[in-house]
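--- STAGE predict ---
source: upstream dedup step, 1 unique chain passed
mode: sequence only
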Amino acid sequence: MNSARIFRSLTVTAGLLALATVASRGFLRAQEPLENTAAIIMEGRVVMPDGTPPPKVVGLERVCSDLQGSAPGPLTDKKGHYIWSQRLSPDTMRACFIRATLPGFVSTKIDLGTLGLADFTSTDSKRQMPDMLLSPRDGGEAGSVVLIDAGDAPGKVQSTYKRAVKALDADNYDEGIRQLQLAVKSLPKFADGWNILGSVYERRQHYMEAQDAYQHAIVADPKFMSPYLRLARVSNMLSDWAGAAKAEDGMMKLQPRYLPEIYLQQAITRFEQKDYAGAEESAKTALMINATNIHIKRAEYVLGRIVLAKGDLAGAKEDIAKYIQMDPTVADLSKIQFQLDNLENKDAPAVDIPLERP
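--- STAGE serialize ---
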């Protein structure tokens, strides 16, 4: 499977990924004999994609290339703030970083090689650290298949899951699907298995099968966010507006701002249900949270379609033109440009443009 579409979980096993991740990012600054070390007090925050504190207290850890310097760190407070006192060496040649840890989420990393420890003095031991960003492990993006680490699969289905991963890595989708089906049949509560099975189906455009798998994932773990977004999207693809609305409502009871594409899907659903005021509110919320995401940018086009449906040609021109500027490489650009150029031409042929980004 194309590695750009598969992301394994990075939330556990400090060190297994460390060498490949940080070997070129600087020298190790890890614990050494006291006479060779400098005291440092690091202060910073862990935040969610929208800048808010994490949903619960978060742990920190230091990960080093040779594992000897790896160590657990403190917990944040309820607002995501932390203070971490360490003794670090400016001379040891090993690469280290720190990151936040919370099951189901991944964290950005801070390279300790950038701290400039050689310049530290006894009166200059504090460092204000940049924010660490904590995001859901599976962001639910269209076409993505996010695998968990084999060690995180339940023991009962671990060997079956490993065979599924091997097949998917070899682009053998049929065998990967077969092994995932065996895993979830053996253990129906394997929410990650259902979610991965659904994402493989979705990537192959088998939307009905994907819809069923995502529904099972939610039943297995009602607090697992990604399946709600994925289910809303495939339900919209199937024109199942009621199913999409149910998935969106379920996500709204969790942490929708962590996966802001859910607001785009809600805007699409509401548009198709002719709830134009609700659709406009949802589209604007998506753009307010993250207007740089390639999929969420489509909300600007949805806004154009909303005002067009309400008969506001000037507003539609403005929003659609803005979308073209925001996403100039989108696959259906020529159709959208034709639509924009002919908004006032009643004799122009109709163009079928989906609200979902192709």
